[in-house]
Every structure is written in C-alpha cells, then in structure tokens.
Write a structure and sequence with these properties.
Elements: H1 10-37, E1 40-42, E2 49-51, H2 55-61, H3 64-97, H4 102-110, H5 117-127, H6 134-140, H7 152-180, H8 184-193, H9 197-208, H10 210-227, H11 229-236, H12 247-257, H13 261-286
Helix pairs in contact: 1-13, 2-13, 3-7, 3-10, 5-7, 5-11, 7-10, 7-11, 8-9, 12-13
Length: about 290
C-alpha cells in the first residue's frame, strides 16, 4: 500500500483548520465565556458587571429549588436511559428472530428516529392532552386522572414517556446491528451447549453486545440530560411554574427568563464539571467490564 505524504508540514494543519475553527468558535469560546461570566453579577442589558467571586456557585448549590431540580434530573436521566435501553434491546432481540416481514417490522420501529425533539414533544402533548389525549383516556380507565402542566408527577411522567419513546429507535438500530454482527457459529455452539434461551442470551449474546451497550449508555445519558430540552420546552408550553424541569432547562429559565446571567453561567459550569466526572466514572469503572474481543 502506497503511503500518502504531505510535501510541507503546514498542509495537515490547513486541512484541520476548518474543524478546529468550528470547535473553537462554537465550543471552546462559549465555555470560556460561561466560566468568566459565572464569577460576575452581570447587567442583563450589558451595561456592566460586578465581580462576586464564588457567590453565584454558593447561591446555586445552596438553593432548595436547584436541589429539587437536580433530584428530578437524576431520576429522569436514570429512567430515560435504562428504560429506553431495555425496551430497545428487547425489541432488537425480537426483530433479529423475525423471518417474514422483517424489513417492515424494522422500519416501523426506526421511523421515530427521524422525528425532531420539539416534534416529539408536540406529539407527547397531543397524546397526553387532557381533552383529546388517548393516553389520558387510557389511564382514566384505571382511575388515574392525569393533569399535564398542573400536577408535578403527571407532567414528569409525560416528559419521561415522550423522551423514552423518542430514544428507543436509536438504541434499537445499534442493538440490532450488534446482534446481526454476532457470528452464527457462535450462536449455534451456544445453542448446543445450553438449551435455555434466557441463559444463552445473558452468558453469550449480552457479553458480545457489551461494547455497543457501553457506547449507547454514554449516548443515552447525554441525550437525557441535554437533548431532551426541546421535548421539555414543548410539554411545558413556556410556562414552567412548579412543574418539573431538568438542570439544562433551568439554565435557560434563569438566564433568558430571569435575566440572571451570572447564576445561569454558574449552573452551566457545574453541569460541565458533572459531565466530566460522569465521563471519568464511565470509562474508569464501567469500561473495564467491557471486552472488545
């Protein structure tokens, strides 16, 4: 194979320049500006700023409202991550065994992937509407009178259900690809050694899906914490009140609605630190149990 060599050292850097410029302008610069702003009490109209040190961080972490939002974000993230992964894995296992109509079955499960988060939120609002929502009528049969936008638990349930529904197709695609990538000879050998399908799945199939599962775990945690913003915004209809919100949505509320730029910047910095800690934990503890060969 012939190696491609550049005549000058500047050519590789010139090729990387567009991507590096995008990262610097849209990621590094806003992050640095958020860190700087978190130490100031800023005028919302940009007429001045007063240095307050760590006061914004202290006010944030000692706030009972922030603690309540953090608890909901934790529960919301865990439910969305593990339920969407579990349901998608179950559907992928069933789809992998389908012989007739397999393409139609897979298409029906994957089409939701093309739906944007705000559109998914709008569909969730329609499904849980108090007057015409089919889900409200369904739960009413069991004596549960849902009040989305009024009741804290009901609103959180609608958010969680919509977010899970939106994320299942993504997980399904990856799990199905991982299942179809497992060697048939391995599956046949496992079926000979063990008659129990449940045991074969947990001792042979599931470990072989570990790399895919680890990747999806990171993707789903990121999705639940950040990419559900559009869903939450549409479900709340711009009027959060006492309804549940996530930490990311609270940054938006305090910064753009409450004009507390310093406080919202402090919250965003805390989120950055939290994501960094979660990433370290995932790669140090969870990835050790993942085998790629």
């Amino acid at each position: 194979m012939k190696k491609v060599q550049f005549n000058t050292r500047s050519v590789p850097y010139l090729l990387l320049l567009p991507q590096l410029s995008i990262v610097a302008i849209f990621f590094l610069w806003p992050a640095a500006e958020a860190v700087r702003s978190s130490f100031y009490l800023e005028d919302p109209f940009g007429f001045g700023a007063t240095f307050v040190g760590f006061d914004n961080f202290i006010d944030t972490v000692t706030s009972s409202d922030y603690a309540r939002v953090a608890r909901f974000t934790t529960v919301f993230t865990l439910l969305v991550t593990f339920l969407s992964l579990g349901i998608a894995l179950l559907l992928a296992v069933k789809a992998d065994k389908v012989l007739r109509g397999a393409s139609s079955y897979k298409t029906l499960l994957m089409w939701v992937y093309a739906v944007a988060p705000p559109v998914a939120g709008l569909i969730g609002v329609m499904m849980f509407d108090q007057h015409v929502g089919p889900m409200v009528d369904f739960f009413a049969l069991f004596g549960w009178e849902m009040q989305i936008g009024v009741n804290y638990f009901d609103t959180g349930f609608a958010m969680t259900a919509t977010a899970i529904w939106k994320q299942i197709p993504v997980n399904f695609i990856f799990f199905l690809s991982g299942l179809q990538g497992i060697s048939k000879s391995v599956q046949e050998a496992a079926s000979i050694d063990c008659r129990s399908g449940f045991r074969r799945f947990w001792t042979v199939t599931f470990p072989l899906l570990a790399p895919t599962g680890f990747f999806l775990l990171i993707i789903n945690i990121t999705y639940a914490m950040f990419d559900t913003f559009g869903i939450i915004d549409v479900v709340l209809k711009g009027e959060p009140g006492n309804n549940p919100v996530t930490l990311v949505y609270k940054v938006f509320l305090d910064g753009f609605r409450g004009n507390d730029l310093g406080g919202s910047s402090a919250q965003s910095v805390i989120l950055m630190i939290l994501v960094f800690v979660l990433t370290v934990i995932q790669f140090r503890l969870i990835e050790r149990r993942v085998h790629y060969t």
